[in-house]
Every structure is written in C-alpha cells, then in structure tokens.
C-alpha cells in the first residue's frame, strides 16, 4: 500500500478519533491521574525540606508543582542522601505512571487500529453519511482485553523511556557542573551560551525520546510484537518513510501551538474580569470549562497524530511484513489473547 498524502493521513486520523470519541475521555482521565500522582513525591520532598531547613510547607507548595520541585532540588543540594531519595521517588512514580498510561492507552490505540482496518477510504471527499459509522470500532471489552495483553510490554517500554530521561538528565547536569566557572575564570562569559546550548540539546533529546516512544507504541500495538522487534521495524520505518513521520509531527505540532495561543488569549481576556468581586465568582466555572475544553482538545490532537502515524505505518508494514499483524514475541511464541482457550 502506498502511504497517504499528509493532509489525507491527518484527515483520516481526525475522522477515526471523532468516530471513537470515548477514547479521548479515557486517555485524558488516565493522563490526568498520572500527572496527579507526581504531586505525592513533590509534597514529600517539601516535607523533607521543611524538616531539614525549617521552611514553611505552605509557602513551598504555594509556588506550584514545578516550582516546588525546583525549590526542593535546590534546597536538598547540600543533603545528597535526601536529594537522591527524592529523585528516586519522583522517577518511580513517573515510570509507574507512564507504564499505567501505556497499558490503558494500548487499549485506546487498539481501537484506532481496528477502526483504521475497517474504515475503508473514509478520508476521500465528499464525506458520506456513513463515514463516521464505518470508522466506529469502540468496544469496552475489546479495550480492556487489549490493555491486559500489552501490560508486560508497557512496563518494559516505560522503563526504557525512564532510562532515556535519566541519561539525558545525568548528561545535562554533568555538562553544567563540569562547565561551572569559578569566580576568576575566563569562561564566565561563555557560561550563558553553555547553559543555553545544553538546555536546547536536552529539550531536543527529550522530544526525540517522546517521539520514538510514541512510534514504538504504534508499532507494538499495530503488529502485536515484542519491544525488540518493534525497535527494528521502527528504525526501518523512520529511515524509509521519514518524510511522513516528520510531516505529521510538524503539522500536529503547529496545530497545537495555534491552539495553545488561542487558549492563552482566551485566558488573558478572562483574567481582568476574574478580579471583579461578584462577576469573578461567576467567571470561575467558565475558566474551568475553558481549561477542560483546552485539555480535551489537546488530547484529541494527540490521538489524531497517533492515528495518522498508525495509518502510515500500517500501509508501510503491509508491503514489508505481510503477516505483521500476528507477529511473534521475541521468544518465538505468539502470546494468546485473554480469554482464548489454552
């Protein structure tokens, strides 16, 4: 199968997500739960700082979750054991949350794969009355079975992602600490450039790791293969079809930037009203609704890009690995679906 044009792939992804709209709510809920879980180690770190340095816990937490994490790391720099315990706790919660997201989102991604296989050429204009009906594949029992099926592979892949984050973080800190100039150092003028370069490289590395993680999810769920097999197939897909991968990434990223700008403008427009005594209280529900709609919109855009990646990869894989949809595990055995007879 030839790959779709970029606009057709994104249109197809949007239609598949619209036809299976419950997956947006499910992914949003599990993503929010994983982010909320990160609050627990940060609060624990703030309590440690309060116990060691005698700081006010409420003052530490009032800055926001990310600012509080920065304050905790800075405050614990002189207590290596406490800092290590805090970082390990954050890492464990982050990896666990990512594993949970992979398991649940494997089920929603399976709905996308099923919809893509049964929908036909729904991206072609004009749209028919049954366009969305043909792409509707959401079934709760199928989603639950798929989530159970990919649990072990989700744990492995989440561990890999956590390791990639750790490597980037260690290299970043090593570069900064190694290049830290002394008071009379001649390199003081270049310190800002070093920080900017190291930070930019870290951001690019994290973005690359996230993109690789997303594409590995697509390959694993689409082909039902092990992580090692998926890595080999992803490398070939990324090399031979790089234009499609980067095109979807760039277009969806551009749409997300525009959506973020619109959301910021809406928030800025509502901000002055929020300070009025009575009207401000009435605006709070509106602000909450705007935040919720923005979050759901971004989740829908993420799933649209995921569906576009999936349809391009499935067409690519069909000509390279005809039996890709029933691939074997690394040990050579095909894992059974839950409920299948032994």
Comma- or semicolon-separated keywords:
342 residues; disordered C terminus; globular; single chain; 77% helix
Describe it.
This protein is an all-alpha fold and 342 residues long. It has one domain (6-181, 190-321). Helix content is 77%, strand content 0%. The protein is built from 13 helices and no strands. It has helices spanning 6-19, 22-37, 39-53, 57-61, 65-75, 80-118, 131-134, 140-149, 151-178, 191-223, 227-240, 242-274, 279-320. Helix 1 (6-19) crosses helix 13 (279-320), helix 10 packs across helix 11 and helix 10 crosses helix 13 (279-320). The two termini are 35 Å apart. 26% of the residues are buried. Residues 325-342 have low confidence and may be disordered.
Number of helices: 13
The SSE order reads HHHHHHHHHHHHH
| Tally of individual domains | 1
Largest sheet: none
- The portion of residues assigned to helices is over 70%
Structural class: mainly alpha
**Radius of gyration from CA coordinates:** 23 Å
The CA-CA distance between the termini, in Å, is 35 Å
SSE blueprint and pairings:
Layout: H1 6-19, H2 22-37, H3 39-53, H4 57-61, H5 65-75, H6 80-118, H7 131-134, H8 140-149, H9 151-178, H10 191-223, H11 227-240, H12 242-274, H13 279-320
Helix pairs in contact: 1-13, 2-6, 2-13, 3-5, 3-6, 6-8, 6-9, 6-10, 6-13, 9-10, 10-11, 10-13, 12-13
Quick structural summary:
The chain is mainly α and 342 residues long. The protein has helices spanning 6-19, 22-37, 39-53, 57-61, 65-75, 80-118, 131-134, 140-149, 151-178, 191-223, 227-240, 242-274, 279-320.
């Amino acid at each position: 199968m030839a790959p779709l044009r970029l606009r057709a792939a994104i249109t197809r992804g949007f239609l598949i997500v619209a036809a299976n709209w419950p997956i947006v709510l499910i992914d949003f809920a599990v993503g929010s739960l994983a982010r909320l879980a990160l609050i627990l180690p940060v609060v624990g770190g703030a309590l440690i700082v309060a116990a060691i340095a005698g700081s006010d816990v409420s003052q530490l937490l009032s800055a926001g979750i990310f600012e509080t994490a920065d304050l905790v790391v800075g405050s614990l720099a002189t207590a290596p054991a406490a800092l290590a315990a805090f970082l390990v706790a954050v890492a464990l919660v982050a990896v666990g949350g990512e594993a949970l997201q992979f398991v649940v989102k494997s089920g929603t991604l399976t709905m996308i794969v099923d919809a893509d296989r049964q929908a036909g050429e729904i991206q072609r204009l004009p749209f028919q009355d049954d366009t969305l009906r043909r792409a509707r594949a959401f079934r709760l029992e199928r989603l639950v079975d798929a989530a159970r099926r990919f649990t072990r592979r989700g744990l492995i892949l989440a561990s890999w992602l956590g390791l990639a984050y750790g490597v980037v973080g260690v290299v970043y800190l090593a570069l900064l600490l190694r290049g830290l100039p002394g008071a009379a150092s001649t390199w003081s003028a270049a310190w800002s450039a070093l920080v900017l370069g190291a930070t930019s490289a870290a951001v690019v590395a994290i973005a690359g790791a996230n993109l690789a993680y997303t594409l590995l999810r697509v390959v694993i769920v689409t082909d039902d293969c092990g992580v090692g097999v998926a890595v080999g197939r992803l490398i070939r897909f990324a090399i031979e079809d790089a234009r499609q991968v980067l095109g979807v990434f760039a277009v969806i990223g551009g749409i997300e930037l525009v959506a973020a700008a619109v959301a910021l403008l809406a928030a800025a427009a509502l901000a002055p009203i929020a300070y009025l005594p009575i009207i401000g209280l009435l605006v709070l529900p509106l602000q909450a609704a705007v935040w919720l709609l923005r979050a759901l919109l971004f989740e829908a855009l993420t799933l649209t890009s995921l569906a576009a990646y999936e349809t391009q990869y499935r067409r690519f894989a069909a000509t390279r690995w005809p039996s890709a949809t029933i691939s074997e595990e690394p040990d050579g055995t095909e894992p059974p679906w839950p409920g299948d007879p032994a």
